Amino acid sequence: MSRRNLITVVFTLAGVALLVAALGRFFFPTNYQPPTALAADSTVEQESDENKSGSPRDVLIAADKARRAPALAKGEWTNSEPLALADLRGRVVLIEFWTYGCYNCTNTLPSVKSWDERYRERGLTIIGVHTPESEREKILGNVRRQVRSLGIRYAVVADNDFETWRAYGVKAWPTIVILDKQGRVRWTHVGEGHYTETENVIQQLLAEEAKERAAVESKAGRELNGGAGVVTTSAATESGQRRERTNIIEGKIMKSEAEWRAALTPEQFHVLREKGTERAFSGAYWDHHEQGVYRCAACDLALFNSETKYESGTGWPSFWTPVVKENVATETDSSYFMRRTEALCGRCGSHLGHVFNDGPRPTGLRYCINSVSLKFDSQPQNSPQS
Ligand code: FE
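^ thats the input. predicted complex w/ fe (iii) ion below
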């Protein structure tokens, strides 16, 4: 090859390299790095500068060292009205960055769904932030179909612009971030695996929440006993401001629709808050015979004792009297062209079922209750009335 030809080849190769680099910057802007899906034994990549100021991985960060979680970017929500982290203070929040085409996410899904089922009522909210890997995964109809067919019941928000992804410094699917009840990032895990450790973190943060809630409710109770007509509980934020959480008005619990949606499963929300009815013979308690107390699934108030439960043959759990009269309120219900008496939780106002006059002695009443509205407590501590 002549010297001239050699120079021509070198310049041609250099030109091609420059062109590839320019195209690369066009398709992958500087603030976007192509993510990867990580399996359990994958080597976690080194943290970028953006993430060095963030949270260490697989370490439960002390509350006073944890940073406040960035807000969630706007996006289309499935399974829920739009949720804001500020409205979820008081709950532990698990955010999973995932995409439906990622097999590592599919492998993680059974654990995430199981945590949702077991801990939702105890104060856990799971939010799936769907960050697409391919063009088809950006199509909202595809996301909704996949959420349905995968049996995902927790809230999912589409993060097509990767805004939330970048705000949390995420680099790979799946990434799980857990926030404590004050909205601080306490745990981050990348890839599959670490399920036991992650569940332990959920339990620890829920326990922290339970301690704080007990303190708040104890304070509210003292104020009520002191004769205050209206009590508003509030939780202190790090900035020193006080933010309203749950209102307890003369012993009643009042929450916004968004808060109830976050606290309950879709089925519970439909029955308890939208006065729905479960199908006969389909619930957990119509044929349930253990000794214990049935509590409100929304607020935990004791409603019925197993000793007053009887076989009504209706396919819904039936009782002839509540634990105490005040714990179950009644109202006239004129829906569906019928005049019936509705049974509601005396503390949170959630719909339980109906009361009929064809029950056994001594009351002659039949409290016909949806199983979904109840949760069974086989070992009621202290007074079964509360
Ligand atoms: Fe209740």
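Helices lie at 3-27, 49-52, 103-119, 140-149, 163-167, 195-225, 257-263, 266-274.
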